[in-house]
Amino acid sequence: MSDFRALKDKVAVVGVGNTRYGNFPETDDYGLGADAFRDAVADCGIDKNEIDGLLVCRIPYYARMGEILGISPRWTIPLPPHGRMASMGIIEAVAALEAGLCKYVALIYANIGRSRRVNYGGEESPNIWDPWGYTSPGAAHAMMFQRHMALYGTTTEQLAEVSVAFRHNAGLNPDAVMRKPITIEDHENARPIVLPLRLLDYCLINDGAVCMILTTKERAKDLKKPPVMISGLGGREAFAHASLSNFERDFFYPQLQEIAAETYGMAGVGPSDIDAFMCYDNFSPTVLFSLEGLGFCGRGESGSFVEGGTLKVGGKLPTNTDGGHLSNSYMQGWALNVEAVRQLRGECGERQVPDCEVVQFIAATPCSRSIIYTRG
Amino acid sequence: MTAYDKPLPKIDTLTRPFWELAKDEKLAVQLCNDCGDRHFPASPVCPKCLSKDQGWEVVSGRGTLFSWVTFHRAYWNGFAKDLPYDVCLIELDEGPFFVSNLVDAGGEAAVGARVEVVFEPITDEITLPKFKLAT
Predict the structure, then answer these.
(1) What region holds the Thiolase C-terminal domain (chain A) (predicted)?
(2) How far is the alpha carbon of A122 from chain B, nearest alpha carbon, in Å?
């Protein structure tokens, strides 16, 4: 097993920012990205010209983004518009900072999927299985959840607990896109999309942008806000069934088990130490798979684990306290990492988890990654 | 007869043998002539040993239902009239996974069910392998 322990607490998040979330046809990726960048720069109090590292995700052209922001960094990475890229990008920035390739990295993500009517399936994403009508990442999650139900007796009512809890949390977040409370019955009666999944199992599609600014521990001391440390990280790919898009035959369990050992080992904590959990939730089943893979509950037991409001703010494991992709905003993992930082700073108002000291992010995807954040 | 309006497979050097065999109602997977690995979809090199010496092997057409889903949304207009339709994931007895449609399941589909291939000609050139519950 690889060992990232040398990177423990070496890099801090020192600035976070985001736009409003919604439908903004009057602007574009660059306009939204610039707004999030301005917000993050103001949050950390840095002179933007100090930023010498730029990582962009879902931004059409990195150089145009730099031109707009008036920066010409010495380290740049563009990442494709996949949700799994958020924690991949953050870990790359950690490595670059620790290696001395740059001093301050701005990571910018923007999405205009709502105003441009992106479908995430069909002709937009040609695939060899199209002749049989198999398309969209949601279908892969439906395929996995159907099997999870058959193997472990998990029910759609249990799955509903995920969507209901995140909507509850979004109700405590004034910036969330969807705040009207929902019930398990609402989930069961929602429009079927790819059964066994229904509308309320699917993430939102909305416009918006997020920015994070990272630097080394030493440099972080001189900035405006208390630093949030990156204390643990781990990752593992699952490419064996990549043509099925977002599918892993074993619910990403083998990869997540390795990531758990790696990430918890590095941070020196375990699942019982996690005060708030930020779980990539493009579709609700991935939350169940993440809980099992990381060891929050036993194999096949995630359905009963989430019953009774476990994932709500105030529940046993407050998860996606901002409402996640299902109810806050579809910022493909980026907003959840920002939420982790804000929880550790105590900036979350009504949805604040008391005495929040350790927050974990996980994305269970063909490129699974986890990050543990702690107070600096 | 109206024109076929669903997505058609992209036929190239790599995939042509599969579709030619399908037209003869034979289901095939790619076979590595060096290490014997069987895989699908077709790959320009063997994913196990990277050999370029590969061919196609006709398989039994039998497998088990790994999982399945029911589409209630048409991502292409051509599928709108078929809604809802079932898509299945088959673990072939020879190993590879294969995505297809489950036909005439009549609500009897269950993970682990035995299935077998059937063939449905859709154009003069293309015959789609589909699956039904094994008898």
Answers:
(1) 241-358
(2) 5
Structure confidence at residue B107 (pLDDT): 74
Kindly state whether residue B10 falls inside one of the protein's structural domains: no
Contact (CB<8Å) A194/B71: yes
Asked if residue B2 is part of any domain, the answer here is no
Asked if B72 and A192 come within 8 Å (Cβ–Cβ), the reply is yes
C-alpha dihedral sign at A113, A63, A14, A31: negative
Q: Which residue of chain A has the CA closest to B98?
A: A129
**CA dihedral sign of residues A215, A225, A87, A231:** positive
Question: Is residue B7 a part of any domain in this protein?
Answer: no
| Residue carrying the six token digits 């064996």 | A240
Instruction: State the total domains in chain B.
Output: 1
ipTM above 0.85? Answer: yes
What CA–CA distance (Å, rounded) separates B101 from A152? 25
Contacts of B73 in chain A (CB under 8 A): 193-194
Domain boundaries, chain A: 4-117+204-375
Strand duo A192-195 + B62-71: pairing: antiparallel
CATH architecture of structural domain A4-117+204-375: 3-Layer(aba) Sandwich (3.40)
Give the confidence band of B108 by pLDDT, cuts at 50, 70, 90: confident
Whole-angstrom Cα distance, residue A341 to residue A210? 13
Amino acid (1-letter code) at residue A372: I
- Residue B107 is assigned to a structural domain of this protein: yes
